[in-house]
C-alpha cells in the first residue's frame, strides 16, 4: 500500500511540471508508473495545486511546498501519523 501512495505522490509532483509545460502529461505518467485511471486522479490533484499556487501573491515555491506537504500528510495519515514525526 505504501508503494502505491508514493507512486500517487510522484504522479502529483510530476504532473505539476506537466501543467507548467516543463514535461508532457505522458512523461509525467511514465515517471509516476501509475495506470491511466489512477494517474488521472493525480493529474487532477496537481491541477488544483498548480491553480492555487498561481493565484498566490507571495512566494509561489513556498505555497507549492505547503500544498505538497499537505498532500503527503493526507496520504500518510493512514499509518497513524505524518511522514516526519
Write up what this structure looks like.
Helix content is 74%, strand content 0%. It contains 4 helices and no strands. It has helices at 2-19, 25-32, 36-55, 60-76. Helix 1 runs antiparallel to helix 2 (25-32) and helix 1 runs antiparallel to helix 4 (60-76). The chain is flat and about 35 Å long. It starts with a helix and ends in a 9-residue tail after the last helix.
What are its keywords?
mainly alpha, 85 residues, 4 helices
Biggest sheet architecture: none
Note the run of SSEs as H and E: HHHH
**Unreliable runs, pLDDT <50, ≥5 residues?**
none
How would the global form be characterised?
A: flat
Task: Please state the structural category.
Answer: mainly alpha
Distance between the termini: 20 Å
Share in helix: over 70%
Number of helices: 4
Mean pLDDT: 87
Strand tally: 0
Radius of gyration: 13 Å
Strand content: under 5%
List the helices and strands and how they pair.
Elements: H1 2-19, H2 25-32, H3 36-55, H4 60-76
Helix pairs in contact: 1-2, 1-3, 1-4, 3-4
Write a short abstract of this structure:
With 85 residues, the chain is an all-alpha fold.
Amino acid at each position: 500500500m505504501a508503494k502505491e501512495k508514493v507512486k500517487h505522490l510522484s504522479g502529483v509532483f510530476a504532473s505539476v511540471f506537466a501543467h507548467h509545460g516543463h514535461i508532457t502529461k505522458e512523461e509525467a505518467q511514465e515517471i509516476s508508473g501509475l495506470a491511466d485511471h489512477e494517474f488521472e486522479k493525480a493529474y487532477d490533484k496537481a491541477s488544483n495545486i498548480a491553480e492555487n499556487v498561481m493565484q498566490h501573491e507571495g512566494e509561489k515555491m513556498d505555497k507549492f511546498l505547503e500544498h505538497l506537504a499537505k498532500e503527503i500528510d493526507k496520504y500518510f495519515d493512514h499509518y497513524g501519523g505524518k511522514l516526519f514525526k
